Amino acid sequence: MADLLVLEGIRKSYNVGTPVETEVLHGIDMVIKLGEFVALMGPSGSGKSTLLNIIGLLDRPTSGSLLIGGEETTQLSDADLTKLRAHTIGFVFQYHHLISAFTARENVLMPMLVDRGRPDSEMEMRADELLDWVGLARWRDNRAMNMSGGQQQRVAVARALAMDPLLVLADEPTGNLDTASARSVFELMRRFNVERSTTFLFVTHNHDLADRCDRIVEVVDGRITEDRVNPEGKSRR
Amino acid sequence: MKRWLTFAWIAALRFLSEGRMQTGFILGGIAIGVGVIVFMSAMLTSVQTNFTNRVLTSQPQISLQPPDEVARPLRQKDEVIEAAIVQRPTQRVLSLDQWQTILARMRARTDVLIATPSVSGSALAVRGDASRSVGILGMEPDDYFRIVRLPDYIVSGEASLGTDDILVGLDLANDLGATVGDKLNLATGNGGNRILTIRGIFDLGNKGVNERNTYVQLRTAQSLLNLIGGVTDIALTVTDVYAAETVAKDIGAILPVKAESWIVTNAQFFTAIRAQTLSSLLIRSFVGLSVAFGIAAVLIVSVLQRSKDIGILRAMGSSRGQILRIFLIQGGVLGFVGSLVGCALGAAALLAWHRYARQPNGAELFPLIVQPSLFVWSAVLATLTGVIAGIVPALRAARLDPVEAIRG
Fold first, then answer.
1. Distance between CA atoms of B179 and B169, rounded to whole angstroms?
2. Over pLDDT 90: what percentage of chain B?
3. Which of chain B's residues have a Cβ under 8 Å away from the Cβ of A82?
4. Which domain holds residue B200?
5. Are B167 and B200 in contact (CB under 8 A)?
6. B171 and which of A77, A233, B166, B211 could share a cystine (Cβ 3.0–4.6 Å)?
7. Domains in chain A and their CATH numbers?
8. Exposure of A142 by Cβ count < 10 A (0-12 exposed, 13-18 middle, 19+ buried)?
9. Domain count, chain B
10. Does the predicted interface ipTM exceed a cut of 0.85?
11. What is the pTM of this model?
């Protein structure tokens, strides 16, 4: 499998140049291959979200190199990063973060609308297809606030997949859900990973879910302390 | 989702419709502001046009008169002044020197539309035991009535004048207990005396003018004022009423006459108009400014409320420019929709005012002038104000760091 993500010596400091400068990532080296489903674990404050934001091109590292699909991203302009992010990366956040002004279908359609500027029938079909796939076709015209937490998170997964990204970054997407909803959301992502070979980087505190991933990476105090392949991950679905 | 709308428009309209109460309140504020501006502007235009029309149709735009008589100090050869105290000379009723030539030259000018001679002086109007001092103005009705639209102001009788006829004001007629067809005895200080028949009574809308002004034929005034063959004024109308002062100065420079334009003789009127325009402009500017601050405040709150949404949109790949446009469009839409409601409010207020604010006899106070361009300009300016007011909130939204925004 080809390398999708290559991180070399990624460091991130806050308040650079001030007496309270704090380094939260101390040189992360990691390679993630296309189609992998990686669990990123670690205690709160260990730097998982910061790492995810850097990989998601929402934040820049203080030093180090980040290659996505072979392209060095640390020197790209804001506009180029935005374009790359739109076409390559999908996000699922802990608090679903659907836009309340829009319906489920419109939320799923949003990344395509942002990219192409005007809505068209192809986008609508794609949104319907994804909602059907996450089992929410019936709820497509409901506003986010009229749906349960689990349903909202499934819409968020559908939205993350709208642009058919190479990489989906999921920051504790099940952290706020009951066990059944968490399992259902996880299984959706895993199914998409298996069927479409989409790479997932999945932040979780849930060992049960992590054990179902292809690989488990543990970050403690801004350093990778464990990185192991989990060959039973796929079979434990 | 409308397919012809772009992402920024779709998001802007949806954000506005979602915050219905917020949007409703600010739209109400904008509508009231625009309504006040529309109402004030229409009233100001109407009042000024009405006043200007009244001034212009009741007096010549330029009046040419003999120059003031001045006393020259007597000097000896060695420049010693012989009379140290010089008394101001009296201004006698004098004819314009060479007035036929001046009249012909005036009529030849391209910037002069009408030129007509007149004679004015004062007299005593007597009817029975009652007498009033009046000003008499003798003129050639055919030309003069094109300058001063007296026939429009006739309330009784008609505006045709024979050599023994006179037109008097409503208040003078009341004071003398006279009606159309009654006779008046006019006596002047230099011995002139004629009995004239009242042919018409006019109302120029000003008590002083209605009490003092009387109009007779040119020849009648010449004989009454002992000015046979002479005229005291040449009245002019010009092609551009607001250039009257320039034309008057030009004429005064090339001819031995005192040329006074309506702009100078009505200086106080112009000062009042200027003061009124300025105060109205200030009020409208402050209303506009408060509308702009209102829009900006609502949009700033909206940016704060929607910072998570903005962060998500940025994470999805929307550019800073798209986020900027979402909030500028919201400002513009608020301004535009608010201005439409405001125009309707302003128009309704104008109609109500026109219907209920009436003179005691039920006639309108003055004709209301409402130009469609007022509404167009109000809408354009309000929309622009909205967009400008949206700049600061939009920049703030566009500069949001997506990581911070999502984290909240």
1. 11
2. 57
3. 314, 317-319
4. 99-256
5. yes
6. B211
7. 36-47+78-235 (3.40.50.300)
8. middle
9. 2
10. yes
11. 0.78
